Amino acid sequence: MTAKQKSDQKTFNEVLSECRKSDDFVSDTVHSNKDHLYYLHFYNSLVDTAPLNELIIKPLQKHPVFSFEDLKGKIPVKELNVAATGRDLEEGLHRGHVLIQFDPNEPYGLLVSVNRSENREVNIPEVEYSVIGPKEGLVEDLNINLNLIRKRLPVSTLCIKKIKVGSISHTEVAVLYLSDIANDDNVQTMIQRIEDIDYDEISDSSYINQFIEDNSNSPFPQLIDTERPDRVAAQLTEGKVAVMVAGSPSAITAPTTIIEFFSAFEDYFIPWHLASVFRMIRLFAVMFSVFSTPLYVAVITYHTELIPQDLLATLILSRSIIPFPPIIEAIFLELTIELLREAGARLPTKVGQTIGIVGGIVIGTAAVEAGLTSNVLLIIVALAALASFTTPIYRIGNTIRLIRFPFLLMAQLWGLLGISLLATFFLVHLITLKSLGRPYFEPIYPFRFKDLRDSFFRLPFKYQYDRPEVMQVKRSKRFSRQESRKSSDIDEHIQ
How does it sit in the membrane (predicted)? Predict the structure, then answer.
């Protein structure tokens, strides 16, 4: 029997008995002016005492009632529910409700919502910061996040389906989509995967992400997580499905493609030619980050004939006093970079920045002077680490950090052949990978020419009249292509 089934079988009085074991649970009585007695039960850590006194205790003291129907009319609170089962009672009490009973021996009562809400204010996105564009970021409160989305999409077709996930945490998960655009199969697949989650505690959207992605063993993220409400709204209009989790400051959108992980949302706030150049720079930086160090190891170990004569003398001089083979010094420097990253991320912000800068300079200089590594490889590893920071989505950056090490090992084993074999393996893996059942490597495979308009480069908005074909949406047209071509100056109409 699962924890959820056991929770559903608890009786009303069993739930109250369990709650009384906690020191922050209060069971109190209220006397009316006609000596009528009411019994109140609540968690004082979840209930706001000011509304409790004004909206519940004072009306009960002044206006005695003798039935639940009369009680609903006397208490000026919108959210009133009758708790008749242990499940209803447990959920209500832990959501900040107050239980009111006429008789403590009766297995039912009235739940009144006066919950205390401590929320972080809407602030600037920290991970996906942009110089141009909106500065609002998602927070941990689900209702605030839904408000940020509805402000941007004030249409009745924006549908929100809420699901409770977690047999212990009962975390509220919201699935968002535009009913007149989104593919029904995508929506139902997302809802079904979330409903199938059998886990006791869900504290962040990252949990949901790992449960619902198509291939949990792949190092490549198959869903985009973002803290920007404007990005969520834009992707909903493309026909995607979004997921928000109570207590999480980030949302999940799907289906997605590999190219989207290298597209910053700020690309849409700047001229299209600049955005296209920046995207190409990011893609080149990622390729350089993955292949630069393995290529160095492969060429120095097996293919020295590929090195130009002018450069060969410099490489020989830089390695003349190095006692280790190239693979050892490469792994040493790569691990050093990873240690500095982790130390900088885990320490307080100001200390972490100092460690990253000073530590990198001191350790790198000392390693070269001590003869543990060559200065040429130090430059290559530093540039590769810098290039990996250009990815706008954090999770794909972690993937780039990880896959560099298998390429290093294959470069040591079989040189350029090993790098080619591993690159082919990853290419086949990307081709077979799916996101919410849709091809992950689109528009390259399957090749779709129309979707190239917003992939490696971004064409002007007037050419983005179709939604991505990979979404298989109900309405493919974003606007009329003929109307977008109509452009006339004012002076053309002057006779």
Answer: Multi-pass membrane protein
Question: Beta strands of 286-391 (E only): which ranges?
Answer: none
> Can you say whether the dihedral through the CA atoms of 282, 288, 291, 294 is positive or negative?
negative
Which residues are registered as beta bridge partners of 100?
40, 110
* Residue 319: CB atoms within 10 Å: 19
Contact (Cβ atoms closer than 8 angstroms) between residue 288 and residue 469? no
In angstroms, what CA-CA distances link 56 with 30, 67, 78, 95, 104?
10, 15, 12, 17, 18
Say if CB 388 and CB 289 are below 8 A apart: yes
What are the domain boundaries of the chain? 3-113, 142-256, 275-438
Residue 338 carries which DSSP code?
Answer: H
Measured CA to CA, the distance from residue 42 to residue 99 in angstroms comes to: 6
pTM of the model: 0.87
Give the tokens for residue 263.
């597209």
pLDDT in tens, 90-140: 888 988 899 988 888 888 888 988 888 777 888 888 888 888 888 899 999
Residue with tokens 């006194």: 53
